[in-house]
Each structure stands twice: as structure tokens, then as C-alpha cells.
Amino acid sequence: MSIRFTAKARRGMVAMTVAAGLALGVAGCGGGGGDDDKPSPPASASKDSGSKPSAQEGQAETPLAELRGTDGLLLQITSAARDSGGFLTVNGIVKNDGDKSVVIPPQTSGDETEVIKHGPSLGGATIVDAKGKKRYYTLRDTEGRPLTTTGLGNLEAGQALPVFMQFPAPPTDTTEVNLQVPTFSSGTIKISG
């Protein structure tokens, strides 16, 4: 029991630091000024500019996984990387492959009251470490805001939206996890870093 408390406390500290970065438009865990290198990777997680460089840096545009949703929605996972702060950032793109406008289902926020009160998000996402037999939930800041893309709403036909989700990182010997997002199919993703 005390191990879980310690892990939760550590996640809370990381989440609080990351949330401060989110408020500035950067989803980072950098603690001091001048750490320009640390905010950059998480910033790319929350901005579409980050997905483009990773595709240009030699990785083909083939996603790590494709999760099919309702009404033609498609979640393509483009990266899953460990950060030095002890968390895992999953980047992707939600696309409307349908021929009409569609609302991203509210179930993607999950069913936790603290998360739901902050609006539509991907806060209901989880990763499952089959090797370690553990499930990890999206990180939250001290006010219950999920450390994921928020403000999700309508997507027009053909429209795409860059998204990110942050989780506690599984042990370093875990190289694959199963990503589960409510209303989408699940998919196995490889972790880098």
C-alpha cells in the first residue's frame, strides 16, 4: 500500500509541474529557467509542430497503432516516449474519416468526476502493461485536470486534430503497452526511450 502512495505522490508532483507548463502552452516538466531542452519534447506532444518533426526525422508516416472509433473516427498513435521525469507521453492524431461532422464522444473523458468537470478530454485513456500486470491512468494535476488534450468537440469530415496523453511510465524493461481509449478499439504500442 505504501508503495502505491509513494508512486501517487511522485506522479502528483510530476503532474503538478507538467500542469504548470501546460498553462504556458508547454506540457513540460522543466523546473528551472534555461532548461530549454526539457520543455521541447513535451511541447511537441501538445502542439502539432511536434508530430511533424518526428515524421521527418526518418520515421515513416506509418503510425505505431490505429484505433478505430465510432462514426468514422480514427486515432493514430505517432509516438510513445519515456521522459526523464518518470512519465510516458503518447502523441497521436484524431481524424474524422467519415463523410459528415462528428462529435468526439464524451466517454473519452472517462467517468471520474474530477476529470469530467474540466471538460471533454482523453482523460479516460489507460495503458496496460501486460508483462507487469498493471494498468496506468492518465496523469492529473492537483486540481484534477487530465494531462491530455482537452477541449475536444466536433471534427468536420476529413479534419484531423493532434492529441497527446501522459501516463506514469511503466518499468524500463516494459517496451510495449496496450493503449485503451473509451469508444475506440485498443492497440499495442512500442515505447521509445
Q: What structural category do the secondary elements indicate?
A: alpha+beta
**Helical content class:** 10-25%
Distance between the termini: 29 Å
H and E string: HHHEEEEHEEEEEE
Percentage of residues in DSSP E strands: 25-35%
Structure description:
The structure is a single chain. The protein is α+β, with helices and mostly antiparallel strands and 193 residues long. 22% of the residues lie in helices and 28% in strands. The protein contains 4 helices and 10 strands, in the order H-H-H-E-E-E-E-H-E-E-E-E-E-E. It has helices at 2-23, 40-46, 48-56, 113-116; strands at 65-68, 73-82, 87-96, 102-103, 126-129, 134-137, 154-155, 160-168, 176-180, 187-190. A 4-stranded antiparallel sheet has the order 1-2-3-8. A 4-stranded antiparallel sheet has the order 6-5-9-10, with no helix packed on it. Helix 2 crosses helix 3. Mean pLDDT is 77; it is low at 1-60.
Describe the structure using short key phrases.
single chain; 193 residues; four-stranded antiparallel sheet; 22% helix; 28% strand; Secreted protein; signal
